[in-house]
Structure formats: C-alpha cells, structure tokens
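[Q] Does anyone have a clean structure-token version of this?
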Amino acid sequence: MLGKNLRVRVANRQYVWLLATGLLLGISSLLLQASWNQVAIADLPPKVGAETNDPLLTEADAGFRLALKTLDDLDRKQRRHYQPPQHFQGQTINGVKLPPHQKAIALTFDDGPWPQTTATMLDILKEHDVAATFFVVGSNIARFPDLLKRVAQEGHAIGNHSWNHGYHYHHPALAQREIQRTSEVIEKHTGFKTSLFRPPGGYLKNGLVAYARAQKQVTLMWTVDDTYSGNVDKVVTNVLENAKPGGIVLMHDGGGDRKLMIQALPHIITQLKLEGYQLVTIPQLLEMAETK
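[A] Here you go.
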C-alpha cells in the first residue's frame, strides 16, 4: 500500500510538473506571437486618425520601428557590400575620385582572420565606431571561422584575398579554385557573397586578377601601404601624409606579428577624424564615387 501511494504521489508530481511546463510554454508562445504581431504592426504606416495618449504604447511603437530600421539598414548595408556599382565591375582600382570637400577614406585589413589580432582590431574599430573592410584568406577562414562571423556581424565589409595567398603564377584552373573556394567559404560563414578581390602581394599578372576580372569582381589595390617596422609615430605619420579623399589604406590583421599596427590603429583613426575624414568601407567608397 505504501509503495502504491508513493507511486501515486510521484505521478501526481509529474503531472503537475508537465502541466506547469505546458502553461509556461503556452504563455511564452503567446508572448512571442504578440511580439511578432507588434513588429508587423509597427512596420505598417499608422491608420489615418489613429492616435494614442498612452506614452508607453507610443514609446514601444517607436522602439519597434527603430529596431526594424536598424535591422533593415544592416541587411541592406551587408547586401551592398557585395554588389559594387556596375562600372567598377571587372576593374582594378587604387582609389576613387571624390571632391576635395568630401573627405572619405577606407581602412582595409589583409591576411586574416588571425587569432587574437583580428579580435583586437575589431575591438578598436568598435570602440571608435568605425566600419572597415577585411580581405580574408580562405585557409585562415577554415581555421578560424568564428572570427570571420564576428567581422560580418559587426558590419564590416569582406573581400576575397585568395585561399593560399600565393604570389606565383596561377593557371586558370588554379586561379578559379583559389578565388571560388574562398568566396564559397565566406558565403558559408556569413551568408553573403563578395565581389571584392585583393591580389596577394599586389601582384596583378599572376593569373588571379585575370580570373577575378572575368567574374566581374572589383580588384582593390590601395593608395597608402602600412609600415612594417619602426614605431607608432612612423606608422601614423605614413598614413596621414598619404591620406586623401577617396583613398584606400592597406593594413594587416593577419600573416604575422601585427603588434605595431594594433598600437598605431587607434591613433590613425583619431587623427584621421580630427582632419575631417569619414572612415568608410570599400563598398561605401565605391557608392560615393558612383553618385559624384
């Protein structure tokens, strides 16, 4: 009898637990549905004559609208990263022409993603509210995919820097493999395609650029190269002396010891801003040139 009563109590407890769980799930589902309904409503224009005196409802509606706009802007921004203006497709460019008063310049980083270094540079960019462009190596993506995901999630543009970063001649099949394989792994981990390509070492005649051109990708060079030795002042001075509207700054977040660039980056950003420069991604720079 004691055993039977114990089983009944256990069964009752299990029933109560299941009932409570079901109620919680039901409530959660209703709240979630209500949230989605509110999002859908917030995305619609208000009805004519529809007014509310409830400040909480008004504030919530504004919050939903702002959240939707933020998501839409981010989605559009990332889509535009990989759809360059038509007249740039298949071209090789160093920088773009902008009016002197439109002081925009693009910071770019090569050879990542790279452990610690890429994350540190992302922290610096985030702290200074700057979007940049990362030209990534496919074999590094395979080793450190989470770093690439973070690059994309934080709104930076992404370009193809080949799979193996080779300087030697690439016959057409090898060039296709180097670029296509990297493009595929970028899309796999970010959900976006890229039409931006930077040749390793800046070599233009080893077969890689020929394939990129045939695929109507934009080959991006630079107007300012980074400094690999010396001190922070030397690195910063090099960038500032060569900065110009429509310029492209080449830096590195991978491929070796980048401590000097990590130390110099905050100063580069601060000084460029003090000189009136807007720091933009490569796609944003191309679009500025498109409209002028």
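[Q] Thanks! Anything notable?
[A] The beta strands are 92-93, 104-112, 133-136, 157-160, 196-197, 218-220, 247-252, 278-280.
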